[in-house]
Every structure is written in C-alpha cells, then in structure tokens.
## 1
Amino acid sequence: MPDSVYKIIELVGSSTESWEKAAQNAISRASETLHELRIGEVCSMDLTIKDGKIETYRTKLKVSFKLEGHH
Amino acid sequence: MPDSVYKIIELVGSSTESWEKAAQNAISRASETLHELRIGEVCSMDLTIKDGKIETYRTKLKVSFKLEGHH
Amino acid sequence: MPDSVYKIIELVGSSTESWEKAAQNAISRASETLHELRIGEVCSMDLTIKDGKIETYRTKLKVSFKLEGHH
Amino acid sequence: MPDSVYKIIELVGSSTESWEKAAQNAISRASETLHELRIGEVCSMDLTIKDGKIETYRTKLKVSFKLEGHH
Amino acid sequence: MPDSVYKIIELVGSSTESWEKAAQNAISRASETLHELRIGEVCSMDLTIKDGKIETYRTKLKVSFKLEGHH
Amino acid sequence: MPDSVYKIIELVGSSTESWEKAAQNAISRASETLHELRIGEVCSMDLTIKDGKIETYRTKLKVSFKLEGHH
Amino acid sequence: MPDSVYKIIELVGSSTESWEKAAQNAISRASETLHELRIGEVCSMDLTIKDGKIETYRTKLKVSFKLEGHH
Amino acid sequence: MPDSVYKIIELVGSSTESWEKAAQNAISRASETLHELRIGEVCSMDLTIKDGKIETYRTKLKVSFKLEGHH
Amino acid sequence: MPDSVYKIIELVGSSTESWEKAAQNAISRASETLHELRIGEVCSMDLTIKDGKIETYRTKLKVSFKLEGHH
Amino acid sequence: MPDSVYKIIELVGSSTESWEKAAQNAISRASETLHELRIGEVCSMDLTIKDGKIETYRTKLKVSFKLEGHH
Amino acid sequence: MPDSVYKIIELVGSSTESWEKAAQNAISRASETLHELRIGEVCSMDLTIKDGKIETYRTKLKVSFKLEGHH
Amino acid sequence: MPDSVYKIIELVGSSTESWEKAAQNAISRASETLHELRIGEVCSMDLTIKDGKIETYRTKLKVSFKLEGHH
C-alpha cells in the first residue's frame, strides 16, 4: 500500500427493499466504469414515503478506489 | 414546490427485526395523524441488548410534511 | 426572561428568489398559528435545479417561541 | 418496548440558579400537557449576562415521549 | 426513483453580488457538461475582502445528478 | 439507576449479510466476557467491496455496561 | 505567503435587508481598526422575528487578517 | 439591534465548586475590561482530577459583546 | 510529559442531584481500579424523567490516565 | 476571482515517512491530469500498523481546482 | 475478514519531535500488551508550549485490533 | 489552577516545511506579545499548491493563555 493514491467519490443508491440493497445498487452502478473499488463508507441514510409506507431506501456512500499511476 | 412550507418532526421507531422495520413503524404511526409525509432522514440508529442478543433495533428519523396554507 | 420556557420547531421554507425570502415564507406560515416567534436559526440551505437554473431556494430553520404557562 | 414509537421535541428552559434548574423548568412546563416524558438530552447550554453577572442559565433539551397507538 | 443511482460532486461558485448568484454560477458552469442536475446542498459560504469591502461571495455546494445506467 | 456507573466500549462487527447481523456479531463476541450489556449506539457503518459486490458489512458500535461497585 | 501568521476573530453583523448586508456591516466595522482583512467564513446565520416578519438578519463570521511581524 | 456588530471571544473559567461558578468566574474576569457582555454560549466542559476527586470544574464559553461604532 | 502515553476511557455517571455529582460518581468508581486519573472531558449530559420531575442526571465523560511503561 | 468556479475532489495519499509526504503523493498524482490545483484541505489522517510499528501514514485531502469556462 | 470483531481504544501519545513520532509512541506502548494492532485514526492533535516554543506534540488516536474468539 | 481564567485565540501559521513548523511559527509570533501561552489545539490543517508541489503547509490553532487578574 505504500505511496498508493486513492480517489473518493460520493454516490447515492436507492432500493425498495433495504439500505443494504441501496448500497449494493450504488456500487454495482459504479463498478461498470470503475475497477478496484475497495471500501464504501455510509455518509447518511434516508427514505421516501408514499401513502404512509416507505417507498425507497436511500444510502449515501463515499467509495474509494485506487488511482493507477502514470509513472 | 415554489413557496411551499414544510415542518419537520423527530421520531424514534423500534422493531425486533431491523432498522428498516423500525423506521417503517415510526412512519406508520405518524401517518395516522399526519398526511403527505414525504421524506425521512435517519438521524441515528441504536439497539437494546438482552442476554447478549439484540432485543430491539431503534431508528431515529426526521420526517418532513407539507403545511397546508390558510391563505 | 427568568424561568420562561421556549419550544423549538423545525421548518423548511422555499422561494424562487432568495434564501432570505425562503426564510420569510416559513416564518409567515408559522405565524398564522404561533405567536411570539422570536428567533430563527438557519440549520441548512439548499436549492432545486431545473434546466441548469436554480428553481427554488430552500432554508431550513429552527424557530423558537415562548410557551405560555398554565400556572 | 418492541415496536413502540417515540416523538422528540426540543425545549429551552431557563433559571436564575443553575443549568439543572433550567432543565427542570422546561420539563415541568412540558409535563403539563405531555405525559410519559422519559428522557431529556442536553443539546446546548448558554447564559445571559447583566452587569457582569450571570442573569439566567438556559438549557436546550431534546425530550422524548411515547406516542399512544390508535390501533 | 426506485433503484436509480446518483453521483454527488462538490463545487464552489463565486459572485460579486450575493451567495445566491454564486450558487447559480457554479450550477450554470456544471450544467455545460452534466445534465439532470437535481439538487444542490450548501456546504459552506465565505467571502473575500478588499479595502474593507466584500469583493466576492463564495458558495460551496454539493450537487447531485442521476447516473444513466448501462444495463 | 441512581448513582450507578456505566462504561462504554467501542466495537466493530462485520457480516456478509447485513449491518444488523454485523452489530449482532459484535455484541455476541462482547457478551462472552461482559455481562449486563444494555445499549449499543451505531457510530458508523461501512462495507468492503470485492469484484463490484459487497463482501462485508461493518457496523461500529458504542456499547455500554454497568460497572459493579466495590463499595 | 510563506511563514506569515494570521489571526482569526469572530464577529456577528446584522442588517434589516439580507445576510450579505449583515456580513458587510460586520466587516465594515472591523475594518475601522484592522487592516488587511482577507477572508470571512460564515459560521452561522440566524434572524430575529417581530410580528411574524423578519426584523434583522444576522451573520456570524470568522475573519482572518495578517499579523505584522516584529522581527 | 439593526446594523449593530458584536464580537465574540472564547474564555475558559474554572472553579472548585461547579460548572456554573466556573462560567461566572470567566465572566467576572472579562467584565473588568469589557462592558455590555450579553450572552455566553457553553462550548465544552471538563474537569481536573486529583486523588480520585474532582479538583476543578472548567467551562469553555463564547461570550459576545457589542462593538461601539466610530461613525 | 515528553513521550508519555495516555489511555482514554468513556464513562457515564449518574446522580439524583446534579451533573457535577454525576461526574464525581463516575470518577470515584473509576478510581477504585485506575490511578493517576488526570482530566475528564464532558461528552454529553442527559437526564431521566419520572412523573414530570428529573429523576437522575447523567454525565458522559472521557477520562484519561497515564499508562505505566514496561521498558 | 469574480465569477470563477472551482471543483473539489477528495483524495487519499499514503507514505511511509510522514503525513506531509502522504499529502504530497496525493497531489503529485492528481497533478498528472489536473492543472491549476490550488488548495488542499486535510479531512482526516490515519495510519496502518505492522508489528507494532507505523507502516504507512495516510492523509485524506479535499483538493480544489478551477474549472475552465466554455463561454 | 467476514464475521470478525474489532475493538477500538483511544490513546494519546506525545513527543518532542513531531505528531508522527507522538503517534508512534502511543502505538509502541499499546503493542506491548495488544497484538494485531491494525489501523490508527487521528482524532485530534495538540501541543504544549513553554517559553514560546513547542514543548511536546500530542496525537490522539483511535486504534483498532482484532478480538480473538472463544468459540 | 482553581478560579484562574484563560482566553483562547485562533491563529494560522504557515511554513514551507511541515505542519509542525507552521504551528511553531504561529506560536513564535503570538509569544512576542502574549506570555504564558500554555496549550495549542489544532483546529485544521491545509496547504497551498504550486505547479503540482506543496508550497506552504498551514496549521490553524486555538491557543490559550492565562488572564492576569486585576483583583
């Protein structure tokens, strides 16, 4: 790990099932273009409500990935 | 949405199953008297323990709803 | 002021013009039912965007008012 | 406790004596209309000053109470 | 909204007029390359001073936009 | 409860299933040596990623337990 | 800028017009005695209310200025 | 209050008796040179310990006072 | 003090009298097993309520003490 | 500076030597593709440990750079 | 890593040289009794001053280590 | 220490070498006019960048010193 550099991006995933699934959706989408995703930290969680029921769970995540060097 | 006004209240729901279900319980209870609940933001989560097992999951939420105008 | 008690409520006002006007809208609406509003503290500000332009400014406020005693 | 729901309100009490008495004043006033108050968390404390002496101690509290169900 | 994924970026806009105009400048610039900007949350505001007068207002924003899926 | 004293320790549990199960794992492990665990407050949640999928959910908790007196 | 030292002071300005004008008032007042004010960071904003209308906007700022050396 | 400007300073008072007395000590000392002290906000409280007993209570305060204009 | 190492533990004391006494109770209990307690920082304060009266004051503290070296 | 717009990205650099060197590594890597980097704010610092020794220092930074306009 | 449990402790190390060395001192001391220390997160840094010179650098760290199971 | 009062001021020091040296520079400058500086707490650290290299390290500190009484 010495001297490696990581970038952190912030994502919001949503799901009708759970905050875990919302996080997984965000990560699946990010993995389409970014490789080597390593760790996701939960920043916040919220939910939308419709007719007194939870409609969607949303998880805001900071996800880090290694930057390949050009050296 | 222009010029509408929302009020925010803070609730704690609990459940023996999950933090998602604890949130749903808080929202179900609030919906009995408040309509047009829109969004719930998780403030914090905790749990109570009995005999080394989680007894209840608790989710503290800020829930917003539209104030009907008197104009 | 000695021994008086205040309650604090949380409101979100919105406006197409400015965060000041959004705050005023929230306070005007609250004043319809609550008297003796005294101070409003800004919790957060955000905005909604449409076609690359700001559509509404929103100001989240904590507003305090004196509770009349029943003594 | 399973599946019960609590509401949280924010109050400011004041006293010429101490922050403890300021908290008690807020709770006494709230107990006139709300039953089953359970826990009060201190959010912040401040004081007003007159002629170089503390005039009033003020304690801002979040107080929780159980919502009776309509089920 | 179910299962959609949003990305959040952080921008600082500046203006000689107001924090509202500073926010609009940041959003106008971001809209040149990003579509479907939805919400901007104010992170912080500051200002630069010259000869005892405010020279520029600056608004730091987190702006979210929907990621198009590749599915 | 009057005059009792509690100690608070910080734990991280992990699970391949959910943040609830990660919390339960931390508490099960702590219960092997500590009795009278009472309440666990979630400090933060994160996750590790492998090949674009969530590998482990991790829940960081502050757990309190009563100190037996020596009086 | 190398090796220069700045001091930071905290001010609250008020205005009947806007939070921008409240900040400008604080800075104008500070400039009467302090030169080389550089940057002001907004710490918080609040407002006072009278008869359901905003009476004054208040902006709390941290303002930095260079300390002249005695070397 | 319109257009007045306040300065905020940070003080730590200490006392062998209580956090209230520690705050009063800080304010008494500040009043020797500053007039029109208005409000003190508690930033933090701590204490020093000697031989298992509390030796001093310390209260850190932000105290505001009006700046007289030179206009 | 050079090169010494301190450990910090988190405690909650309670008292029917005051937050000062609650802190003292936590420290008295900790001093039974730990020597050289030095400083206690207040993390938070809360209270429990019974029949509209404060039943117990609780003070959460971080307490530091010197680790004796094995060198 | 009037009306210019900045983007902020978050990076983690690491080094076996110091947090300063860790920050420099992150900035060197970012400078390969981004020009006009201006300011880096430290968000957090941590370290990894191996056999009781610090293996790597890591500095998490928010780095800002000017967005070139397309006007 | 699945289902492993970590404990987190808080330490303050000090050094006359640097915050890096202060952190190393805390970790060296903790390693005498705890094995498998993994990660240390900086909570805060401060310093003591004597005769206008920095006497000691102090680094407050949260250090995590794996709990061996008893299963 | 009983009943003594401390004032806290906020400073930013800078250095081309390290955050330690930046802190030392701020303290050296403050010591020219203030005696009995005791403790400095790091509030934040940042850096300026030129041509992809760190130009200056900056350390923001809160420094406390004892107020001599006039009693």
Note: Chain C touches chain G at residues 18-20, 23-24, 27-28, 31, 37-42, 63 (CB under 8 Å).
## 2
Amino acid sequence: MNGLKRYFPIAQWLPHYGRDVLTSDLLAALIVTVMLIPQSLAYALLAGLPSQVGLYASIAPLLIYAVFGTSRTLSVGPVAVVSLMTAASAGQVASQGTPAYLSAVLVLTLLSGLMLLLMGIARLGLVANFLSHPVISGFITASALLIAASQLGHLLGIAASGHNLLELMHSMGTHLSNTHWPTMIVGLSTLAFLYGARRWLKSGLIKVGVAARPADLLAKAAPIVAVVGTTGLTWALGLDQWGLAVVGNIPASLPPLTLPSADLSLWRELFVGALLIGIVGFVESVSVGQTLAAKRRQRIDPNQELIGLGASNLAASFTGGMPVTGGFSRSVVNFDAGAETPAAGAFTAIGIALVSLTLTPLIAYLPIATLAATIIVALLSLVDIGAIRRTWAYSHGDFFAMLVTILVTLFFGVESGILAGVGLSLILHLYRTSHPHAALVGRVPGTEHFRNVERRRVETDPHLKILRIDESLYFANSRYLEDTVLALVADSPQLQHLILACQAVNLIDTSALDSLEAINARLGDAGVQLHLSEVKGPVMDRLQKTEFRHSLSGEIFLSTFDAWQALHRQSPIQMSIPSDEAPPASVRHSSKPGTPQGDNV
Amino acid sequence: MNGLKRYFPIAQWLPHYGRDVLTSDLLAALIVTVMLIPQSLAYALLAGLPSQVGLYASIAPLLIYAVFGTSRTLSVGPVAVVSLMTAASAGQVASQGTPAYLSAVLVLTLLSGLMLLLMGIARLGLVANFLSHPVISGFITASALLIAASQLGHLLGIAASGHNLLELMHSMGTHLSNTHWPTMIVGLSTLAFLYGARRWLKSGLIKVGVAARPADLLAKAAPIVAVVGTTGLTWALGLDQWGLAVVGNIPASLPPLTLPSADLSLWRELFVGALLIGIVGFVESVSVGQTLAAKRRQRIDPNQELIGLGASNLAASFTGGMPVTGGFSRSVVNFDAGAETPAAGAFTAIGIALVSLTLTPLIAYLPIATLAATIIVALLSLVDIGAIRRTWAYSHGDFFAMLVTILVTLFFGVESGILAGVGLSLILHLYRTSHPHAALVGRVPGTEHFRNVERRRVETDPHLKILRIDESLYFANSRYLEDTVLALVADSPQLQHLILACQAVNLIDTSALDSLEAINARLGDAGVQLHLSEVKGPVMDRLQKTEFRHSLSGEIFLSTFDAWQALHRQSPIQMSIPSDEAPPASVRHSSKPGTPQGDNV
C-alpha cells in the first residue's frame, strides 16, 4: 500500500464512491444522528460538562475520522467509560462547573489525542494487546456499575458525587432525605419505560406482525420517544418551575474554536489520566472495529486507527469538545443501519451540526433525569456476568485478575482499577512462566528421538543427562533454571555431561545468559561439561557474539541425537522406568470429546 | 525439613557448633567490626541521619538475622543504595534533621520489614526474579553515581542537596563559591589516599614480599587508616575550630528502644517507598547470598531470606535504626575473613555494641569529609561499565531497558528509576512474545514427523494446512494469532481443514481462549474446520471444561500424524519447495565454534 493510501485511508474508498453507497450511507447517518442526540447530551452530563459539549464532540471528530480511520463503520464520539474517566481525571484538578474544569477537559482531550497520534506514528498499535480480556471485561463491567451509581442522584433529584462507589453511596445517603419527588417520578418512570422497551418491545412488535428489522429499529428508537415525551411534558406542565432539573438554554451555534491551555504543570497533572483515556478508548474502539470488520471480511489497521483516533481527539480539543473514541452501541447501530463507508460518519456530523444550529431551543426542556435513565439502561448491555462465570470456570488466576480489577475500579476509581488490572495480568503471566517445565529425556530405542524419562521407557546414561526446557529463558525464570540444573547435578554423582535441549527455547535474554554463564562456571567447578543442543537459529545468532560461547565447557550440537552419539559412552545402556507407561505408538488414536488425554510428549 | 528448622535456620547449625568454628567466626567478626564502623557512620550520613543511627542499625538486626537467616556468611546492616532510597523516601515527607524525618525513617524501616515478612510467609521469594539483570545492574550503576554526586558537597564543605543529578548539580553550582578550603583539602587528600590504596596497595605489598592474603586484608584496612589519621589530625590541629565539619558528640549508649509512629496517613505516604526499599534490598541480599553460598556448595532459601530480612528490619525499627539488608562489600569481607556460621554476624553485633558504648568519644573528631571520601571510593566497585557494554552487544532491547533505568534514576531519582526499569523489562518481554513464531509444517516423507515447509522438502496438501505455534498463547499474542490464522485462510482458497499443532504451547489463557473461539467461528463461516493436535496434558485438562471444546468444528488429535492420516485426502501428494535446502540427516554433524548454524527445526 502506498504512503498516501496508508495514512489517508479515505483515498481507498472516495474515488470509487457511487450513488448506491451514498443512499445507504445517508440513511444510516439519519438513524445514527437521531440516536446520538440524547446520547451525546447524556455523556457530556456524565463527564460533568455542559450538554452542548457532547454535541460539539460529535461533529469535527467524525469528519476527521472519515479521513484517517480504517474502519468502514465505526462511529466516533463521546462514549460512557471514557466520559467517566474524563470526569475522574479532570475532577482531580478542578471542580465541575468551573472554567478550570472545562479547560482541564480540553487539555485531557488534546493530550490523549497527541499520545494516540505519536503511538500510531511509532506503530505501537500492539499496546492494545497488553490489556487481557478478563481485565478489559472486568473494567467495563465495574465502570458500568459505577456510572449507573453516579446517575442515581440525577434520577432522584439529589446532589450526589464521588469518584468511587463508597464516596457515591455516602454522598447519596447524606442527601437521600432531600429527594425531589417530581424528579423521581419522571426519572423512575422513564427508566421503567426504557427498560421495558429494551426487554419486550421488539418481541412484542414481532408478535403483532411487524417484521424483524423495523421492529428492531423501533425498539432502538425508544430513547428518542422518552426524550421527546418527557421534554414535551415538562414544557406543557411547566415541570421545570417545580424544580425539575432540565438541560436549559444551549446556545444555537456551531462548535466554537478553542485553544487548549499550554500550562505545562496542568499537562503533567493530567498526563497519566490522558494516557489511560487514550489507551482504554483505543482498546474499546479496536475491539468494536475488528468485530464489525470481520463480519464483512474487511480488516482494520490498529496503527492507522491510533492515528485516526488521535486526530479525532485533536479535532475535539480545538472545537470545544471532550475525549472521543469509537463507541460500541453507536457503531453497531451504524453497521445495522447499512453504513458502507466512513462517509456515513461525515453525514452524521453534518446532521449533528444542523441540530446544534437549529434544534437546541427545543432541547432546553429536556429533563436531566431522562438523560440519567437513558445512560443507566444503555449500560445494562455492558455488565457481562457470563464472562465472569466463564473466566472463573476456565482459570482461577485470570478470574482473580478480573475480580481485583472490578473491586479496585468500584472502590478506588477507574484509573486505579485499570492500572491494578494491567499490573496483575503481567504479574500473573510472569508467575506462570517463572517455573518453566523441564524434563529429563532419554533416547527412544532405535530412533533419533528423545522423550521424557518419566513417561516412556527410554535409554539413559548415568554419565550424560539431557534436560529439555519447555519455555523461553528470560529474567522471570532464569534463577529457576539455575536452581533446577544445580539440584540435578547435586543428585547425580556420576554425571560428566549435561545437555540442555533447547528446541522450545525461542529467546534467551540477558538475564538468562548471565544464568547460563553462572551454570557453566558452577558445573565446571563440579567437573561437569555443559552442552547445548537444538538451539534455534535466531537464538544461536545472538549466542555466537557472546563470551559465553567461548567459555562454554562443552559444545553446541545441531541435534540432541548428535550430542548423544558424540558423548554417550558404550557402557551398558540403562532403561528408564516411566512412572506411568504411555501407550505404544501403534495404538495411538485420535481423541473423542470427553476422553482424558495425557501429555504425549 | 521440619517446621522448626525451616523457620529457625539457627536450629540447623547451633547444635553442632564447635570450637574450631567459634575461632573462625570470632576472627571474621573482629575484622568486619573494624570495617563496619566507618561504613555504618557513612551510610547513616548518606541517609540524612545522625551517625549513631548507623551503629544502632548494625546491632539488633545482625542478632536477629543470625536466628532467621539461611545464608551462613551474609552480613546484614545499612547499605549504600538502600540508604540513598531511604533519604529519597523520607525526604518526601519531612526535612533532614527534624524529628519528623527520624520518625519517617523508623516507619519506613518498620513497613519494609513487615512487607518482607509477609512476602516470606506468603512464599513470594520469586519476586526477586521480576527484576531483570540489566535493570538491576543499571539501577545500581546509576545509584552509585547519584550517591557519589551527593557526597561531593561534603567533600568540598558546601551545602548541596537534591534527589536527582540535576537538583544536585544545580545546588552545588549555587554554593560552589562557598567552598571551604580546609574541608576540601582533607576531603580530596583522603579520596586520593583511598583510591591509591585500592588501586595499588595490594599489588605493591605483594611486590615487596607480603603474602597475598595479608596484603589483601591490609589494603582493605585503608579506610580505617584514613579514619584514624584524619580524626587524629583534626583533634591535634583543632581543625573543627576552623569550620571543618565533624561527626560530633555521639551519646555513648546501646541502641534506644523506639516505637515507630502508628500514623496511618504517614504509612500510606511511605508505602511505595518502603516496598521498593524492601524489594531492592532483598534482591541485593539474595544475589550476594547466592553467590557466596554457591562458592561453598551451600544453598539459601529465598522465602526464608524474606523472613530473615523482614525480622531484621523490624528489629532495626524498634531500636532506633534504619533500613538494613545484606550488603555486598561487608559480606565478601566476612566470607574472605573465614566466617562459617551466622554466629560471626552475632559477634559483629556485640563488637559494634561495645564500640557504641565505649569508643564514641573518639569518633567525635572524625571529619564528615573523610566519610564522604570513604563512600565515594566504595562505590567505584558498583559502577559496572563492562555490564553495560556486554548488554549492548548481546541485546539492544535489554540495553535500552538498562539505559532508561540509568537515565531515569539519575534525572528523576531512585524510585522512578527502578519503577521505569521494571515496567520497561515487562513491556519488552510482552513485545518479544507478542509475535510468536508460527510455521506451516508438512510431513517428512515416509515418517510420522512434520517440519517447516520453508526449510524442508515435505509432503503438503492444499486442503489441509498444519500450523505449528512456537509460543504459549496468552493475552499479549492472542490477537496476533487471530491475524495470522485469518490471513492464512484468506490466502488458501482450497482449504478445508486447519490443524493447529500445539506441542510448544505450554499455556492458553482466557484471552487466548477467546481468540480460539473467534477463530473457530470465523473459520466456520468460511467453511473451514479447525482442529488441534499435540495439545499438552495440563492445557487439555483446562480445555475439556470449556464451551470451546464443544463448539470446536473439528477434532483434537493426540498427534499431528493422527490428524494427517484422518484428514489427508488421497489426492496426489504435493512436495513443498524449501526456500533454502537443509542438509539431509546423514550429513548433520556436531558444530564447531564459529560455524554459523541454521534453525534445524
């Protein structure tokens, strides 16, 4: 792919853009625009920002993503988890509602955009791989619960704030006696309506004869009905005069041009928050993008996605917006509605811009409680109890990482949660690879093959031991290797040659090289020669340049059989006594599901 | 080993303690005591503490380590790097010289003791493995440079302070015009004397006929000569009246009983610092202990060492001390001087206690500049330029981790340095394993073996591909696996069966299981059956319980040959065209050093 098409994916589809595609994209854009209006307002509220910021963040970023993004159907804009993280980060340097808070959000957006852009240029798309699935899943479930809790106050008309569950619950408890009844009635009935529509509307419509696709779209339009209904009711009955909180007057305008603060101390304070917002947003976006792309046998390029999302966030920071990424629900709607190219996103941006210019007076009477109910119901799909159950069944270690992520997120906040989850996944992986499997092997009689002495009857030699190591050697297991080898030598008084069979060693890092040098020296003291066999090409290339290569007391053999032939003394051959006889090769057969299987190596 | 002997290693050697061993231990204790006096005072100075704290920390901890430690020759007490880290951590909550600072140091000591003890009980000795050698080596080199820089002020008689090189240099530059000439003369001449003695005294003595061992001990006594000489000179000439900073009056007493503060907010502020002090101290101690133990074919138990060092630090925190660990230079001297059991350490403790009670009036005239010169020369052995060069030659990645550790330590301080190093080692490891090697394999004609199609002429079948994966599957590479498999399928229009050969897969974590499920589903859409072969026992046990086991479109075969026999159609066999013909088995031979070797798998 040439440079232009790689960095400007728009060049791949725009030249072939035809009339059919235009129709599909326009229809999808219309549907997504209608859905996005309440969502954008709600996520701005969640991030502690004036409602119009959500609209502004759904204009320029979509246009920019259409130029730089590689997903055909991803819809970019404010999303729930990132909005919550924005509130948590910006809340650490300023109070919601102050100009300093707005300024902090713009800096967060700018920084996370810059970081994503730089990561994209450095081709670091693989950072998305460093978040394990249990950690992502746990983090999203916990965030959804935290967001739902943060919206309960709006639903009851009381002031409740906090960055973790304890703070929120405590704050809510303090204010519970001030519950505002009109707000509660609007909030809870909207919640009941939205939940009911989500649960039963589609199947109900199908039952009365509506086709599946329109039934699905109608069910998804329920939030619009709730918004229009409660806004109209508030206007007609003057509920805002009774103290029902509403969105209020929004200036009817296009997004303003804004210049994020260049205060470096503010940048430093928001650095970690911006990094986490960028990475979490990127991971969510890539997951959604890959899932949708695979359905149409398309592909997305994670590195170019970093550039696309980075540029989108830069655009948001200069147009009075907030951090954006590819959202799950909006992208699925876009895909289902038939979007075929990023032009659908650009048309959506134009739709939102028209709304910002013309319809904002109508939004003034929209109750905050309605938005809170919309958020809470939208979050239900993110709480994945099944994933928790499956993870527990498959791996207690992974479940533990997930559980810690959930608990830390709920009780210490989103930043601590994601950091704890990532840290724990890494430690778990190190722990798992820090005790590599190593087996003494012997020769299968009459062949060039060597198998575990505990599993097969194989030829062995008390002067010559062959240790097969089943893991790459690196810092987390290099000391364990030393211990294993030295214990083996201590137990083998007749030993003269030790061969490390390295067919499963894909890497030897500097720490492991130090350990091999130490092993070589200590075996030398004990009068045992150290040999290597089956060293892979790339590993061998590195070893050639080292002092170890020259100080090695023995040789490096191409195959273990070469080593056996060269070093095996013509003493009477001993046979190993396997702890558990393996079946002979002639009766080995393909397995049936449910048949327990042994390690056949 | 029974519980008593395991948790109280003293029970292993005390019952057999004889007269010969007593003589050896007493002699070693005498030599170490003489060496430790200036060292303990100097490290207290380095940690920003009154000199006597260094002496106190060399009494109770040694007695306790003799009971709980597993190394026969490790000498526990204040060490340079840990003292520097103590100054950095305690300096964040209080100013040097205030009672709050002393109190912070006691809490740091208590916390790191508690953490080590808990880690020991939880058998977490393997945490030492998570610090890679390049990171440790880079950290120690950078710390040594930082410590040397921090002592330059004392050498010139000017006030210079700071927690990183920039702060130190800036502070020194500001005060350079105030250089105190008498201090500078004493400081620089002591430095020249100590450096000269270290460099030439031993070889000089051997040249004039002194035997090697006494020559070595005499050379190591140079610091004592410097201390006695400059102290005498200061007293005789009254240099302290000229403004030469001296240690001053130290109360002649045994260590006081102290109760560390129970202020939980202070504990929280010092938490990370205490953890890093504990782990870095533990790593240094275990490295020294293992090196010395191996020389005498003894072993140490890292988990029990955690308990021993934890208890020693607890003892230090209750007796007016500072964080302690097993030091490199003091342990080597103890070993060389012939110590045979931890009783030598206990005798050293008694020696230091006697000094604290009786000799402190003599120490009053000891110039601070002498201690600074002692520290600087002692650090020279820690700067390991050779390790930096070797690491660069062997692995640019490891060198990069080392370089970042050095730079961050120098310019952002010790805590940031060690955290950056550890983080980078982990990321580097994830990066290295995130692109696992995977090879298409075919059957070696007439055998049950399968080899890389690009390296051998092997039988292949366009309807059946066998992909061998050379790495455990986990979160960092699960997405890469998806990409690899889907790209393979996209390029193979005739494909009906894909077999993943898993002999090198030691682990499949939850993220990788999700990826296998996704691969299975997408291959199903494309009409390709997914099979596994050679799945290892423990991996198979886990898979049995999963939904994947039942949704898998194909089968799990015990061996790749079984899979080939079951799925290979009797169409004309195709032979692969290797990119580079491997030598036939008959001419394979053992390698000579210097012969380039290919990947023979």
Note: Chain B touches chain A through 84 residues (CB under 8 Å).
